[in-house]
Design brief:
This protein has about 260 residues and is an all-alpha fold. It is built from 11 helices and no strands.
Length: about 260
């Protein structure tokens, strides 16, 4: 609407436009609109990056208790595998964010600037349940807190398939994506109403990219784990306790009894 008003003013007040043919007028309008939209898109992308950078601590608050003990307690601590697990987790979280954005837009939730806190709490409860269950399966099936043994495997070998590290990274990433924090809701609103189609998606992508620098220290986990062997056992016990806390105290108890 603003661009249309500007073009109308230019047509009425600028002698240059008065001497153009209809075809030349149409081409000139397309160039003007394209330049304005390009500049607006650049501003939106910068805004998305700044929003992600300024609110990335929310991401670390939800992801840190999951990723740190999980990565430190793995059997294989190579940099390539560690990076792959982090990437799998982050891609899964981003996929859940996109899915929630599409669902909320279709259901009409994004007509308001403020997200329903009751629905946000319910989603967080389910997030804790799935995340806790996945971490628990990983603890019992792959890296039992007090060791699996070289030959005999873990105490619950049937859980090895559903509790392997890669499946855990996917499930926990999807589960953490159910936490709707204020910055995420702001990004969803801006991506839907700030542009259409590709521009809206790019806004959300750049917001997500802005949060990623806070995860850079996690790529150094193998360096720490190899030099502090005791850290692996501490991390496994921590993951086991965190999984029980997520599953029972922040998941099942609020689900069935509320608080």
């Amino acid at each position: 609407m603003l661009i249309q008003r500007c073009l109308a003013s230019l047509r009425q007040g600028n002698a240059f436009f008065m001497h153009l043919t209809p075809a030349e007028m149409h081409l000139t309008e397309k160039l003007i609109v394209g330049g304005v939209c390009s500049e607006y898109a650049e501003i939106m992308m910068i805004e998305a990056m700044i929003l992600g950078l300024s609110t990335g601590t929310y991401c670390t608050m939800y992801c840190g208790p999951v990723l740190i003990p999980f990565l430190c307690g793995t059997e294989k601590t190579g940099y390539k595998r560690n990076s792959g697990l982090i990437g799998t987790f982050l891609v899964s979280r981003f996929a859940m964010y996109c899915l929630l954005g599409c669902i909320f837009a279709a259901m009409g939730y994004v007509v308001n600037e403020f997200f329903d806190p009751v629905l946000a709490h319910q989603l967080s409860v389910y997030a804790y349940i799935f995340c806790g269950a996945s971490l628990l399966c990983n603890s019992l099936g792959v890296k039992f807190p007090w060791g699996c043994g070289e030959a005999g495997g873990c105490k619950a070998p049937k859980l090895r398939r559903i509790g392997n590290d890669w499946v855990t990274a996917i499930i926990t990433g999807l589960a953490v994506g159910l936490h709707i924090c204020p910055p995420l809701w702001t990004a969803i609103i801006r991506s839907i109403f700030g542009g259409h189609g590709l521009s809206g998606l790019l806004y959300f992508v750049f917001f997500y990219i802005g949060t990623l620098p806070f995860f850079i220290p996690l790529f150094g986990m193998p360096f720490v784990a190899k030099r502090l062997p005791a850290l692996r056992r501490v991390a496994r016990v921590t993951q086991f306790l965190v999984s029980l806390y997520f599953l029972i105290f922040t998941g099942l108890i609020p689900l069935f009894f509320g608080y």
